[in-house]
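Sample A.
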Amino acid sequence: MIVQVEPLKRLVSAIFVQAGCPDDEAERIAHYLSKANLTGHDSHGVIRVPRYVEWIGIGRMKPGQNVEFLVDTPAITMLDGKHGMGQTVGPEACRIGIHKADAHGVAIVALRNAGHLGRIGDYAEMAVAHGLVSIHFVNVHSSLLVAPYGGRDRRTSTNPIAIGMPTRDGKPFILDFATSMVAEGKVLVARQGGKAIPGDALV
């Protein structure tokens, strides 16, 4: 099936407005999810819509939140996302880091209590667009999905990492990966009839 992007974005946005998100937030979520699909990452695309709506319903993600400063120094900041939508609090945190790095040459930003942040490479791309090198670490303590090497019980999250570096030729280096054999979203896509995953990726 071929789906046009703009009608899809309008549909996704309408779903999130109905779920309680302000209009601008709903449009932002639709933008980031559809962008993931367009860049070949269906695992972080509109396949996430039903789960996000479910999480809103049980209070795991809360529409209309903005980051709150817990610690704020010239180069170091700790933020509370208040369980807000990741596509709102994630970009907010990244913009704060970009501003501090521009002003002081380096920045460390910690964000806690954020909803699902989507494709972490988006934030590396934001920093690269400002000529900055960035490293992003994600720790999802409530989502134990991964068995350690040689084990069979769930012990850790997929704990994604992303790195972005600008280059002289204008083609930035972006590395975005899970620390597990396969990203959780890839399993979600496979389960719904998408691309197969390696047979030894599941325990």
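Sample B.
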Amino acid sequence: MLTQLFRNLTLIYVAACLMLAAVLFSWQVRVADQQAQRQLQQYADLLKISLKPLLLQTSAEQLSSHLNELQFSALLPIAALGVYQSDGIQLASTGALTALPSKIETQSRQYQLLQTEQGRVALQPLMIWSAASGQFDHFKTPDAFLLILPETAETWPSVLLPLSISGLIFTVFFMLTLWMVYLWQQQRNLWLDRLTAVDTETRGLSNVPSDVQALLDWRVQAEQQQLSLQQQLENAAQQQQFLQQQCTAQQQQSSVLTEQADILRQQMSAWLQHCKLLWQRQEQLSVAVFQTLLRLHFLYGLFQFNPRSLKKDPLSLVHWLPQQFGALHKILAQGTSIDWVEGPDNINFDVLLDEEVLQASLQAMLLLAVRSENTQRILCRVTLEATAQPHLLLHLSCDGNGLPAHIIEHISQAKSSNWQWRDVDVALLQLMVKLLQAELQVQSLEGLGSSIRLRFPVALQGVTFSSPVDRLLVFDQDSDRLQGRLAGLASQAVQVSACSHFSELKRKLEQTAPQRLLMFLPAEQPNEAWQQLISSYQASINIQAFAPELTLSHWQALLPCIASAEFSLMMLQQHAVEVLKSQRHKSLLVVDDNETNQAFINILLQNKPVQLASALTGKQVLQLCLHQQFDMILLDIRLPDMSGIEVAKQLRALPGYQHTPILAFTAHALPAEIAEFKKAGMDDILLKPLEPSKFAALLAHYQLH
């Protein structure tokens, strides 16, 4: 009997499952179909608005290109798009062209959803509005038709998850029902056995106590079984609740992952579209700006869609920053100047930072700054804050009319979505805020310019540095720039004094004796007072000058100077080291077995700051050069023990002599011989007998005095 009951329940369960699967599948197909129809109609209305202004002004090729962009940016999968004239002939198309008919027959004034051999298609009439027609467009024959062929999607995968969850719940419920029926059947059998025991009436009174004990035992067992069944029911209910919670959590997680995947797909699609638009506008941009924008687009895609751990290599800011001047200055428009201000701790510490990230941040900030109209001057501060929690501050301030309003609004939203191809600088800076845990502040006032600050934490690594200059005098008419640079210049000298007026500069030069003078020359051309001042102190004081780009050539006619935009602490330090090197006497090695020539050269160098050494043979030359570094070698070709050509070859193989000037000292030099001298590594030729003027010219050329 129980087996028959199980069979009946199983048939009911299978029938219920099949019915539930059919209902769920039909409902899901209907919902998906209705949603697809709504999306398709919304997309058709959007294309109608987008294509209206292009029907009279655009050729068929341009219209097809525009349809291609619309298909690429669609949120639902579109197989093909086609525009047909009012007579039904195809005008433009994109996508799967073979799936589109060459001509349509339907001439409807309203949106239609048709069923064709290729599947469901949407037909949207396009009407060009005109002042003459006005409110009668509902009765006007359409000027064109838009045919949309969506891609067919499978419905079964979307129904699989609900069917699986429902089947699991129904199976648990069925098993619990079977278990309850089984327990009920056992209890029923016990009661039947008890009721059929009629022979108890014929038993004697002696058997009554045993029957009562059996009844008590049976009641205890029944109560225990009832408690056990209740516990099993509670456990089954808890398990069912746990399974329902798991199913709900998995559904929520699946929804979140699906939403994230959709957002990522939209972002990648927009990024690819921006790159495509950038290539199309290449001719409208300068080469430097285009290459910089292209690089920022690439880095944005790399960091946004393929996150990776940033490098933490030691980076010296004072060495790295001057290397970026060339590429960064090319971004600036003609007539725009830039000045760089470095912090005092930049030279004392290296930062553990990804060089590519720092370079991209500076490029993005500079591209954003030049978008301010009428910008003529930019001041860029790169300051390392060596505190308990060290930070690196990049601060760009510029004049002009300020940034456009839509850029300020875009930055204030703190989102990197919905940006255009030219806004990659803003998008990258917002991405750096997340990657570097940075603070981004952008301020802009119309007519007063703008300010861009990017500050983020860094790790430091100390380096040793010694100041090569005792007393440094700095002149700059721009007092703001002077005050900003004084802190960094303090690390370059033991004592630093500054002035911003010509009269004050003249007074300080007369009263003090600076070891070095650093001048940032004014934008005007040098007058007589400047010429007199420079000529008075140029010979006695080491002067390093920087001038604006517009007047650089005029100042260079008066003294050696460099463009102001090229100034850096590293350049200042290198110049000081070069000055120290130039102050020591250079050494000259004369190799000649003729003592008369040796004595004549000694007389010529008596009053010059040159240390003279001599050698008579090739072996002596090689022995001296192994233990001493000479600044120049005058080498006789014919030596007693070996050829001067062979000596030159061996000298070039010694450490420290790969670039030392070697002059061939010979009585004759034919073209073939000159070629052989050059091949051996000799730099120049000095003919015998020795001419003092020629000898002095060669010494000056190779900076020996």
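B remarks: The mean pLDDT is 82. The chain is about 50% helix and 20% strand.
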